[in-house]
Amino acid sequence: MSFAELQLHPSILKAIEARGYSNPTPVQEQAIPVAMAGRDLMATAQTGTGKTAAFVLPALQRLHSPPVVNGRGPRMLILTPTRELANQITDSIRAYGKFMKVRSCAILGGMPYREQLRLLSQPVDIVIATPGRLIDHLENRRINLGRLEMLILDEADRMMDMGFTEDVDTIAAAAPENRQTLMFTATLDATMARLAQRLLNNPGRITIAPGKATLDTIEQRLHVADDLEHKNRLLRHFISDASLTKAIIFSATKRDADALARELHEQGHRVAALHGDMNQGARNRTIADMRRGKVRLLVATDVAARGLDVTGISHVINYDLPRFAEDYVHRIGRTGRAGASGIAISLASINDRNYLDRIERFIGQSLPHHVIPGLEPTRELRPSPKGPGRRAPSGGRKNGGYSGSRRNEASSGKALLTAHRGSGNGGRQKLQSRWPWNTGEPAQTVRAAGLSDTERGQAAWPAPFLQLRALKRFTPFRATPRSLQFIAVMFQTTPLQSYPALRFR
């Protein structure tokens, strides 16, 4: 099937052709006709499958019809969990709406409030927003959703994970009941089913098999590294390859990303780092530089694994393997997009064997081993020794890169809170198993965490909550009401706001 067969407006087809696309991806082929027919839609598809165009194109098509209600306010609202995704969607709207008059604006956290008020005071067709900031404008009556025709939820599962459930419900309640609602999610579990039941009316259902659309176009390679020096020699070999046009190199920590970017810059490479400690302006400039070709190598943490859409990524290099297998798929999905081919290279040492096993079980295949002549490993990968108290190191960089360091412990708490959810009841069990201490007797948990006598006396509190407090002792984690409410729901405890010892920041 071609895009022309989808009966899109000629101006939209012209923009699609200008971007070099001729045939829709599976999610586009299935979702666009349902959306253009005016039906609600529940779509399950991972990143890298072309789902952004699957809802942007029907939204633009809708603008060629007269508005249902005259007046001010947007006709389409796109909710997304992160600023990176919102910026990606904004760029897509501009690209696909290049040959038509479309007025869009982004309402995001970290953006000057006065600038947002200016944008909302002007006529606008499409608003792209993160839930928290949009709620602020709704409460202050700065935006009216009374003429909304289409509500789109992108990566709805992530929004629920981040604690936006109440915000999404509030936003949906402010929109007309007869609106059309499109929901896109990477996972479908009980939480998503309940959300769909609340917001959707007799929706069409489409499902793209997890990982298939992403992995089929990517050549995956595994290289064994003896030690840090060997790993760096392998990396230098890969980035010297002329076939590498643009690459994302994933590291385990923000500190490692900065250190590796500095080393590569000193070697003469066009390189930049991307991680969560950078402000939004710096992150946007870095991504823009890579899109323009000013940056060839992007050293990133997992903040770039989702929502980053840069065309022409030929290689993804896992300098450090991810802790969770789900993140592997999201990482390598930055290449091989929209039908293009890509190469994903993973570097692993003996100590990474546990992580590698999880990845291979998750994707249902073994990563092919490759050897570079002259850079052969001297040791074979083998299962890590099993026994009580043994932990697999992360394979990071200097000062603890190949040993179980305190740095690895410090990153574990944040990883737990951002961990990908499994489907159904297994998701809760899966998340519980990732806590570093067993959920036994509360007093035992408190002693294991090394808490004070006062804290030890609060043994009546739920064990997961005690573990959270222990994690906060060495984790750069800012507790918010939303994040704590999410944890409470996951563990089926009383909302953690009720505990007086907590102080929200």
List keywords for this structure.
21 helices, single chain, Rossmann fold, elongated, disordered C terminus, 505 residues, 13 strands
Task: Describe the largest sheet.
Answer: 7 strands, parallel
The helicity comes to: 25-40%
Strand content: 5-15%
What's the alpha carbon Rg, rounded to whole Å? 24 Å
Shape: elongated
**Distance N to C terminus:** 52 Å
Structural domains: how many: 3
> Mean pLDDT score, rounded?
77
**Stretches with pLDDT under 50, minimum 5 residues:** 383-478, 491-505
User: Order of strands side by side in the largest beta sheet?
Assistant: 3-4-2-5-6-1-7
- Strands, count: 13
Structural category = alpha/beta
- The CATH homologous superfamily of the largest domain is termed P-loop containing nucleotide triphosphate hydrolases
Under CATH, the topology of the largest domain can be stated as: Rossmann fold
SS element count, helices: 21
Please identify the top-level CATH class of the largest domain: Alpha Beta
Second CATH tier, the architecture of the largest domain = 3-Layer(aba) Sandwich
Descriptive notes:
- Helix 2 (26-36) packs parallel to helix 3, helix 3 (51-62) packs across helix 4 and helix 6 crosses helix 8.
- This protein has 3 domains: 3-207, 3-Layer(aba) Sandwich (Rossmann fold), CATH 3.40.50; 212-403, Rossmann fold (3-Layer(aba) Sandwich), CATH 3.40.50; 407-498, no CATH class.
- Helix content is 39%, strand content 12%.
- The protein starts with 9 loop residues before the first helix and ends in a 15-residue tail after the last helix.
- The chain is built from 21 helices and 13 strands.
- It is of the alpha/beta class and 505 residues long.
